[in-house]
Design brief:
389 residues; alpha/beta; Rossmann fold; Dehydroquinate synthase-like, alpha domain; 6-stranded parallel sheet; 3-stranded mixed sheet; 9 strands; 50% helix; 13% strand; globular
């Protein structure tokens, strides 16, 4: 970027409240904005872990009235969002609390959008097509991965098309985010691994994107450094609060980076894979990230060299090209160390030639890959897919 000739924008719209035990401060946030009744949007995992019970006790002690929807599913659908909207309206709520992983927070955002905008939400797919801001959302992430607690996007499944569609709008930024690392310590090992890789894909894609600018580059690289330092220890010991704290911050920082720096070919492909084959988003990103990095590495050797260093690689004495290649090696090694399958076939997903064409075309048509540092056609996206079969 030429700072003398180019211009850029950057802004955050979400008030972040971070700290170990910060969930206890939620009533203060609710009262600050004068909400008298809230809708809690969450999933069965939070119920089973005791997280919902803890939240309800905090709200009850503070005399805050609430209604609960605890049936969020992975890859939330437009139909579920419409159902949550009706619960919100029937109970005359004034704000929505999304607590859980990205699916719970995206459902809360989608329901907020549906309350304020009539018709099928599919009509608002894409960027800046949502006319009205809905009721405020308070996002409480319990995974360190999606960054949805701070972003301007909700990803919802259109079951008619069997497609995960994204709505991007400044109206979708949560009003507040509660970041409490204690909420991460009950996560299963595999969830920590793939959500951490989701955060890494956000950081790397936003850092190398053709939409990157100085602020997003700084955020992305710092998030990469935190993940390189903390993801392995956190997967190994989920009660490690220091590692949990660093991963929670890394996820949110990477989210802030990709609001403006954008994601690219990894996410372009992972969305149709998730929509059609129910592959967890973080798992799809884990499989795709090293291959997309290999495809892109030649576009900016210095940036990829910096990624290698941030991930802990020793590049002393190496040429810039060899140092850049170490970034790809470092991510492949991380995937292996986290015991994440590196190919689709190892998770029992097999794509026919026709299916490869469909997924590649959907990925291209989404427009997400326009931010990729190296131009990609549908054929290029198919080539990348073939390498992860």
């Amino acid at each position: 970027m030429n700072l003398l000739l180019d211009s850029f924008e950057f802004g955050l719209h979400t008030q972040i409240h971070y700290g170990v035990g910060m969930l206890e401060k939620l009533p203060d946030v609710i009262k600050k904005y004068n909400y008298t009744k809230v809708l809690i949007c969450t999933d069965g995992g939070i119920v089973r872990s005791g997280g919902l019970d803890r939240l309800e006790k905090i709200l009850t002690k503070a005399d805050i009235t609430y209604t609960v929807f605890a049936e969020v599913q992975p890859d939330p659908t437009l139909e579920i969002v419409e159902h949550v909207k009706q619960i919100y309206l029937t109970n005359e709520c004034e704000a929505i609390i999304g607590i859980g992983g990205g699916s719970s927070i995206d459902t809360a955002k989608g329901a907020s959008a549906a309350v304020a905008n009539s018709g099928n939400l599919a009509q608002f797919e894409g960027k800046n097509k949502l006319p009205n801001r809905g009721p405020d959302v308070i996002a409480i992430p319990t995974t360190a991965g999606t960054g949805s607690e701070i972003t301007h996007a909700t990803v919802l499944k259109d079951t008619t098309r069997q497609y995960k569609m994204g709505i991007l709008s400044e109206h979708l930024h949560p009003k507040a985010a509660i970041l409490d690392p204690q909420l991460l310590t009950t996560l299963p090992k595999h969830v920590v691994a793939i959500t951490g890789m989701d955060a890494l894909s956000h950081a790397i894609e936003s850092y190398t994107s053709n939409q990157a600018q100085p602020i997003t580059e700084a955020l992305g690289l710092y998030a990469i450094r935190l993940i390189g330092k903390s993801l392995r220890p956190f997967v190994a010991r989920r009660m490690d609060l220091e590692a949990a704290s660093q991963m929670m911050l890394a996820s949110t920082i990477a989210g802030a980076a990709f609001i403006w720096g954008r994601v690219a070919a990894v996410h372009a492909l992972s969305h149709p894979l998730g929509g059609r084959y129910r592959i967890a988003h973080g798992l799809a990103n884990s499989i795709l990230l090293p291959v997309v990095m290999e495809y892109n590495v030649s576009t900016n050797l210095e940036k990829f060299r910096e990624i290698a260093i941030a991930l802990g690689e020793n590049v002393e004495g190496l040429s810039v090209r060899d140092a850049a290649d170490r970034a790809v090696f470092a991510v492949k090694k991380l995937v292996s160390d986290l015991e994440i399958p590196p190919t689709l076939s190892q998770i029992n997903v097999k794509l026919s030639s026709e299916e490869l064409d469909v997924v590649s075309q959907e990925a291209f048509d989404s427009g997400i890959a326009l931010a990729n540092p190296k131009d990609v056609s549908a054929a290029d996206l198919r080539f990348i897919l073939e390498r992860v079969l």
